[in-house]
Amino acid sequence: MEESEQLLPLLTKVKDLTNPSSASSSSSCETREEAEDLCLPISGNEEGEEEENSPIREVALTVPTTDDPSLPVLTFRMWVLGTLSCILLSFLNQFFWYRREPLSISAISAQIAVVPLGRLMAAKITDRVFLRGSKWEFTLNPGPFNVKEHVLITIFANAGAGSVYAIHVVTVVKAFYMKNITFFVSFIVIVTTQVLGFGWAGIFRKYLVEPAEMWWPANLVQVSLFRALHEKEERTKGGLTRTQFFVIAFVCSFSYYVFPGYLFQMLTSLSWICWFFPTSVMAQQIGSGLHGLGVGAIGLDWSTISSYLGSPLASPWFATANVGVGFVLAIYVVVPICYWLDVFKAKTFPLYSSSLFTSEGSKYNITSIIDSKFHLDLQAYEREGPLYLSTFFAISYGIGFAALSATIVHVSLFHGREIWEQSKQSFKEKKIDVHTKLMRRYTEVPEWWFWCILAVNIGVTIFACEYYIDQLQLPWWGVLLACTVAIIFTLPIGILTAITNQAPGLNIITEYIIGYIYPGYPVANMCFKVYGYISMKQAVLFLQDFKLGHYMKIPPRNMFMAQVTLSIFNYFMPLLKV
Question: Looking at residue 460, what is its pLDDT?
Fold first, then answer.
């Protein structure tokens, strides 16, 4: 009998889930060698039996349809390597966020780096069992480093891979307004923002995680890498295995970055129009890739290409093309027409700038219109005059409003029926795909857990805003309004992200709402944006992690425990750098 046939009974099959007695017959890994062979599920079928798979072609080609539930997940290795990855990425990404072109170190870096470390720990740490025979029995080394541990470590790294947006409130207060905000208040704002997003994510799991149509393109990149790092693959003659191809690409990419990053930084933006006309202001406005429209400019630095919209390689072609067409229309058509026709005195201000200006074109002195109580001084504002935006900045705001309206309309027209059906079916048996069937083996996280977290978090946020009203300025009703905005937009923006890997932000609409209702309080405006926009953004990121765990068959309660831990722990690091 072939080795794969001998191992077949140890693997969770899709067909097993319809037969509880069959499903319960899976064996646990009895030896370290046997466990090593089972670190990644092996696809297999009985002869003549058609394999069930995802209806999404990209998912069917990438995600394995089997599972080994005996693999340990919450191991000592996972906690140590996950915590270190989270701390390191959190520090580096927040540090580099303040660059003109932010350098983002993705979780894939940690995903690669922890593999040799995990295998070293598996080889060197004692496998002695402590407190044997008691209910507290545990071991520091349960066997070979496996793919499920690796997935949870990567989810820890995902939490640290993004800049903590709420820290901008602290930065702006200290750096631009020259005021003080205490460490404790800063900590409350940051933690409650992230945990609020976790609550929204838990509520919308059945809409954005379980349905096969919500396939989250960015996750497939990580799934492919997990398989390349853990799955045994025979090299064909004259070809390369996925691991070999990955190593070659990784070494080449790392070596190349020396040039745009250190030796030849001009590669960040090659603006050849500016070279031919170095003294022409119009040539600089048209050709500069850093201070103008960037017509003809070429960027050979990957950190520039992916600094704001993320890697284009992880997005479907139709979404990337849509972004490209929108960019050309907005930047190469609308902005030049408005600027050179001098619409609303556009030529008084720079073509491309995010700064605020006076009517004469000089930069606006924001601190001059803020009084000692950190409120808007109307008399000083009358002296300074109204604020003006550059043409580019004003059109960007307009596009932001249009994008939000388009998101709601698109989701209502194309996914409204699906959302309604999903809501009705949540109380009865519904059609599920192969990956959801595999996940039914594990105990689910009750939805009321997320509701409790949400209720406690909203209560703490209201208390903080009322008790520290002199620092945060946001009243209790502002917190509730921000939560309402977040919960309304989480589902439509989550659907858009799950299908296209692109998502509009709520930063513009939240600023506008609170600025209109509660004018004159700059910190209140920022706090409202953080609770309304960033909690929604964090919810989408948590949902993406939920889907990654769904694809890789991580037990939901283990995922819940890990994410609750990192939601609190991860956000000490940014405060230490401010």
Answer: 93
**How big is the CA angle at 504 (ends 499 and 510), to the nearest 5 degrees?**
140
The per-residue pLDDT for 175 is 78
DSSP-derived 3-state class of residue 364 = coil
Chain Cα centroid distance, residue 63 = 20
- pLDDT for the residue numbered 79: 93
Give me the pLDDT at residue 27, please.
Answer: 36
Residue 342 to residue 345: CA distance in whole angstroms: 5
Which residue shows structure tokens 């890789």?
A: 552
Hey, which residues does 139 pair with through a beta bridge? 129
Chain centroid to Cα 420, Å, comes to: 27
Residues 214 and 495 sit within 8 Å (Cβ to Cβ): yes
Instruction: Outline where DSSP puts E strands in 338-437.
Output: 356-357, 388-389
| Cα–Cα distance measured from residue 395 to residue 286, given in angstroms and rounded to the nearest whole number | 17
Measured distance CA(278)–CA(402) in Å, rounded: 37
**Pairing mode, strands 138-139 and 129-130:** antiparallel
Residues of the chain with pLDDT under 70: 1-51, 100-102, 162-163, 307-309, 422-431, 568-578
464 burial via Cβ count (<10 Å: 0-12, 13-18, 19+): buried
The rounded distance, in Å, linking the Cα atoms of 400 and 507 is 9
Q: What pLDDT sits at residue 7?
A: 34
Cα atoms in the Cβ-side hemisphere of radius 13 Å centred on 468: 21
Cα 359–Cα 365–Cα 370 angle in degrees, nearest 5? 120
Exposed e or buried b per residue across 104-113, where buried means at least 16 C-beta atoms within 10 angstroms of its C-beta: bbbbbbbbbb
pLDDT value at residue 17: 39
Cβ atoms of 144 and 125 within 8 Å: the answer is no
* pLDDT at residue 43 in the model: 42
Q: Tell me the CB-side half-sphere exposure of residue 216, using CA atoms within 13 A.
A: 24
Gap between the Cα atoms of 543 and 82, Å rounded = 19
Contacts of 398-403 with CB under 8 Å at 24 or more apart are: 399/326, 399/330, 400/504, 400/505, 400/507, 400/508, 400/509, 401/508, 401/509, 403/504
pLDDT at 11: 36
What's residue 51's pLDDT? 65
Taking only the tens place, the pLDDT of each residue in 489-534 is 998 899 889 988 888 888 889 999 999 999 989 889 999 999 999 8
Which residue has 């808007």 as its token pair? 376
CA 557 from centroid of its chain's CA atoms: 21
Integer angstrom CA distances of residue 33 from 8, 182, 234: 16, 54, 19
Nearest-angstrom CA–CA distance, 324 and 444: 41
Position 499: which residue type?
I
Between CA 224 and CA 40 the distance in angstroms is 12
pLDDT at 100: 65
CB 122 within 8 A of CB 144: yes
> Residue 242 belongs to what H/E stretch?
helix 242-256
DSSP for 288-337 reads -TTTS--TT-B---HHHHTTTT--GGGS-HHHHHHHHHHHIIIIIIIHHH
Please answer whether residues 77 and 121 qualify as being in contact, where contact means their C-beta atoms are separated by less than 8 angstroms. yes
- Cβ neighbour number for residue 117 with a 10 Å cutoff: 17
- Burial class of residue 374 (count of CB atoms within 10 Å of its CB; 0-12, 13-18, 19+): middle
**Token representation of residue 162:** 């993004």
